[in-house]
Amino acid sequence: MTRVETSAGGGVAAAVDLLRAGEVVALPTETVYGLGADATQPLACARIFEAKSRPLSDPLIVHVPDLEWARSFGEFDAVTQRLIEVFWPGPLTVVVPRRAGVPDLVTAGQDTVAMRMSAHPVFAEVVTGLGRGIAAPSANRFGRISPTDAPAVMDELGGRIPLILDAGACAHGLESTIVRVVDDQIDVLRAGPVTREMLERVAPVRRMSGGDVVTPGSMKSHYAPRTPLDVVEPEALDGLDDAARVGLILPSPEARAVAGRFGAVEVLSESGDMREMAANLYRVMRMLDAGGWDRIVALAVPTDGIGAAIMERLGKAAARE
Ligand code: TXA
Ligand code: MG
After folding, report:
1. What is the C-alpha separation between 100 and 115, in angstroms, rounded?
2. Residue 59 CB–ligand 1 contact under 6 Å
3. Whose CA is nearest to atom 15 of ligand 1?
4. DSSP class of residue 74?
5. How far is residue 13's CA from residue 27's CA, in Å, rounded to a whole number?
6. pLDDT digit string (tens) for 244-278?
7. CA distances from 290 to 225, 244, 293 (A)
8. Closest alpha carbon to 234 in 298, 308, 310
9. d(Cα 123, Cα 28) in Å, to the nearest integer?
10. Angle at 15 (CA atoms; ends 39, 129), nearest 5 degrees
11. Is the minimum distance from the CB of 58 to ligand 1 under 6 angstroms?
12. Which ligand 1 atom sits nearest the alpha carbon of residue 140?
């Protein structure tokens, strides 16, 4: 049985108690819902992998209560230090050399650890209440779409976890940006809400994900709906066959004119706002996936700003292996 509670209904205290007892709990963050466990308890972390059916080779992000605690888990160079001063709390994960005492399960045995500080007020209450880091991957079964609200978590993990702390829909709707600083330059391992342009204000970005930088556990197919998904350029829309069996994802209303022959049409942002497109993407993918269409087709978006993160997720959703 999976309970759903809100912070108003005493959910924060219940979550802290469960985490202390070595249990897993689904928690809201500003990006997507996470499945959290006390990062200092290896057995609790093992439960995360079990509930998600996640391979042990895929390391976890540790969500820290404060900077001092973060320094007890990893070593921060000057550029990384500057990055966290600018972007924490918020949707930026930094990969840094680990210290002794970090459970091997958290890092998948590597010599680095990924950390971030969430800006979500409910998450902040839980992690401060616990007083320790919370290891938390996205609260979906392995390889599936990250949940951006409590019903989506229930779809993914209902019956497998004791508690979902419900705080409504996530503001960003896409996972955090993951970076690693090498020789005072930034490698982006996963594009996200903190964009290349924002990072460049702190230090040069040497590489973007998708090139030869590989995150452990970042296989090509990820964030995937069960329905086959394709990403197409606007010119290709007219030529699509069997449109009546297709669920179409449009970034903005512009292409609606040609969309009449499609089975279903979902617009990510009526005002054409890229942040709103990002925030709605997973919810819309999940909805069309449940709609029984033969195929989902998404229109490509420009790759500046958060568009890079949107296209990275669409690319992974479209990958067949
Ligand atoms: O927004 C987010 O980051 C969400 C919320 C819950 O905070 N979490 C999230 O976690 O997306 P997850 O596990 O779904 O994705 C974490 C990614 C994985 O691809 C993993 O390989 C990478 O972070 N990662 C973790 N530790 C790493 C490390 N030491 N080096 C490189 N990549 C790492
Ligand atoms: Mg994930």
Report:
1. 15
2. yes
3. 137
4. B
5. 12
6. 999 999 999 987 877 778 999 999 999 999 999 99
7. 9, 16, 8
8. 298
9. 6
10. 70
11. yes
12. 14
Which phi and psi (to 5°) does residue 95 adopt? Answer: -100, 120
> Which residue from 178, 181, 194, 223 has its CB within 8 A of the most atoms of ligand 1, so it is best to mutate?
178
Give the chain's end-to-end CA distance (angstroms, integer). 33
pTM exceeds cut of 0.85:
yes
- Ligand 1 atom at shortest distance from the alpha carbon of 175: 1
Sign of CA dihedral 81, 83, 86, 87: negative
Between the CA of 55 and the centroid of ligand 2 the distance, in Å, is 12
CA 110 – CA 51 distance, rounded (Å): 22
Nearest to 197 by CA among 114, 282, 85, 303: 303
Separation between Cα atoms, residue 163 and residue 157, nearest integer Å: 10
Asked if residue 45 has its Cβ within 6 Å of ligand 1, the reply is: no
Separation between Cα atoms, residue 148 and residue 279, nearest integer Å: 8
Q: Quote the tokens at residue 233.
A: 């350029």
DSSP helix/strand/coil, 205: strand
> pLDDT 10s digit of each residue in the chain, 321 long?
999 999 999 999 999 999 999 999 999 999 999 999 999 999 999 999 999 999 999 999 999 999 999 999 999 999 999 999 999 999 999 999 999 999 999 999 999 999 999 999 999 999 999 999 999 999 999 999 999 999 999 999 999 999 999 999 999 999 999 999 999 999 999 999 999 999 999 999 999 886 544 454 455 666 789 999 999 998 888 888 899 999 999 999 987 877 778 999 999 999 999 999 999 999 999 999 999 999 999 999 999 999 999 999 999 999 876
* CA–centroid distance, residue 27 to ligand 1 (Å): 15
The tokens of 204 are what?
Answer: 């040069």
